[in-house]
Amino acid sequence: MPYKNPNYYKEYYQRNKLKFREYGRKARKKHRERENKRVYDWRKKNYEKYKDAHRKHAKKYRGKNKEKIKAQQITQQVKIPKNKLCDICKMYKAQEKHHSEYNSPNKLKFLCRKCHKNITPKPTKKGV
Ligand SMILES: [Zn+2]
């Protein structure tokens, strides 16, 4: 009787770890595909509703992030100079534009991907 051994399932899991992991991966993938299809179908079916919701969300976003959007619009017009090196490390080619402050969008920095990733503030948890 396997039940007599309290570690039976633990050991069973250890022995078949890879199998379980593989199974989980496959299940998640399958689920993701199904979920994507479901969302896609829903949007197709309720196109007007989706569009409306999207519009509302965009409007809300614009109202909330006026400065950010303004800064983005200015940024879009600015091109990164050719052969420009990153403003921070001066080692890699600048590939991205960065705003230090949204309310002064003219203060643009040209950064490489790595430095930009480091400098961008991560979303903080609530209450921190
Ligand atoms: Zn850099």
Lay out the secondary structure.
Blueprint: H1 8-15, H2 17-45, H3 47-64, H4 66-77, E1 96-99, E2 108-111, H5 113-119
Antiparallel strand pairs: 1-2
Helix pairs in contact: 2-3
This protein binds zinc ion.
Verbal overview:
The chain has 128 residues and is mainly alpha-helical. The chain contains five helices and two strands. The chain has helices at 8-15, 17-45, 47-64, 66-77, 113-119, and strands at 96-99, 108-111. It has a two-stranded antiparallel ribbon with strand order 1-2. A hairpin with an 8-residue loop joins strand 1 (96-99) and strand 2. The longest helix is centred in the N-terminal third of the chain and has 29 residues, at 17-45. The model has no long low-confidence stretch (mean pLDDT 85). Bound molecules: zinc ion. The site of zinc ion has 8 residues, from helix 5.
Distance between the termini: 52 Å
Mean pLDDT comes to 85
Structural class of the secondary elements? mainly alpha
Q: What is the subunit organization of this protein?
A: single chain
Identify the notable features of this structure and list them briefly.
mainly alpha; two-stranded antiparallel ribbon; binds zinc ion; flat; 128 residues; 58% helix; 2 strands
Brief summary of the model shown:
The chain has 128 residues and is mostly helical.
